[in-house]
Design brief:
147 residues; alpha/beta; 39% helix; globular
């Protein structure tokens, strides 16, 4: 089972960026945490991070035929990007949305998620653990329904 974890803009600055909201741990810490969880779950994991919308669209397109599912935190593009939504719909790979913070309790402009409309599940406000929950959910989903 192969899963691609995609992170959007500014998530490369985890640890530095608004630590009150996103925590003090870095993007490398996040990758280490996910890699360990995937090793335990016997999942092959790939990572992609970009600050550019089109690069994220390209990564989603290139996942087709290579990965069985996607975990995605589109970051700010969550709330603006129809292109990322369309890419997820185009490849039709099962995708799970993650947000480190609880977007529901934040600004009004964070209340809409375009990418989320193409996702089978969303985890928000769980910090880094949201990614682990997303991976476990995706594994269960793929094993039970669509392996
Ligand atoms: C985020 C929430 C978004 O609203 C924000 O733009 C981000 C990170 C999160 O993980 O909580 O960059 O996706």
């Amino acid at each position: 089972m192969k899963i691609l974890v995609i992170n959007g803009p500014n998530l490369n600055l985890l640890g530095l960026r608004e630590p009150d909201i996103y925590g003090k741990k870095s993007y490398s810490d996040l990758l280490r945490l996910i890699s360990t969880a995937c090793e335990n779950e016997k999942i092959d994991v790939g990572f992609f991070q970009s600050n550019h919308e089109g690069a994220i669209v390209d990564a989603i397109q290139q996942a087709y035929g290579v990965y069985d599912g996607i975990v995605i935190n589109p970051a700010a593009y969550t709330h603006t990007s129809v292109a990322i939504l369309d890419a997820l719909k185009a490849v039709a790979l099962p995708a799970v949305e993650v947000h480190i913070s609880d977007v529901d309790s934040r600004e009004e402009f964070r209340q809409i998620s375009y990418a989320g409309k193409a996702c089978i599940q969303t985890y928000k406000g769980l910090g880094f653990d949201g990614y682990i929950e997303a991976i476990r959910f995706l594994k269960k989903y793929l094993t039970e329904n669509h392996a």
